[in-house]
Structure prediction request, 305 residues.
Amino acid sequence: MSQGHTRRRALTLIGATGAGLVAASFSGTSDEHGGDDDDHDDDDHDDYDDHDEEAEVAEVRAAHLSPDAPNVDVSVEGDTVLEDVPFRAVSEYLELPVGAANVAISAAEDPDTVVFDEELELAEGAFTIAALGELSEENQPFAPAVLEDDVSDPGEDARVRLVHASPDAPAVDVTVGDGETVLFEDVAFGEAGAVEVPPGDYCLEIRPATECNDGDVVATFEVSPEAGNVYSAFAVGYLDPDAAPADEPFDLEVVLDAAPDDEEDEMDEEDYDEEDDYDDHDEEHEDEDDYDDHDEEHEDEDDDY
Prediction:
């Protein structure tokens, strides 16, 4: 297996003044038609707008990656959507309408302790709001971050994204095969990288980043990505928990972001809806046939009379 191509980017840190979920804009176009077709065009545009409104959905999930923070509650527009989320937990995706939304994160046992309360501009797509750093700020400051999740189909390969969320760990290289293949290179705290690999069994070797990617292995993790699946691997906890503000040892939390079955299920639901529409159309057509038969019988009666 040749060296993997690594794509790394800094996560979007959310400052005190607020920020958006990945910059995106949706601009509409309007056609101006004269004459008697205006009403018809308006109806078409209304149907098209309704379709757009149904399609514009943001899928958002929360990841608690702050090792010294308590369990948290997450609320959207004042409504609690996730309760008592512990460290290392990554929630399921929540479907939220595209547009501005207030998102707040507070301590589960002390609602008055709010660690995040900002208005986000939700764009269409999939996103993870990750709580990074430490409340104690001993190694890294606490700062929620927004990750854009690429859940597109990787085809016959599997896509794995690494998110460095270990406050006391240096920048890391991730290799396999005793360092023969480099999957991720020089990924620092608060950064993420993604790579597509053939399906199979791998032993991931976590090393401090070096110029030659040959640092001493500090941890290994066995993973078995499957074809067509998309994963996020969150490096969490402390390399030295004895000297840390919380006794949370270093670990790799691997989460399934998307699978081919998810898309097939959506397609099946669409096909089922189309069949329902077709059946409804057939029933309407049968009603019309019954009406025609009734008219013919009525005409025969008139002829006999």
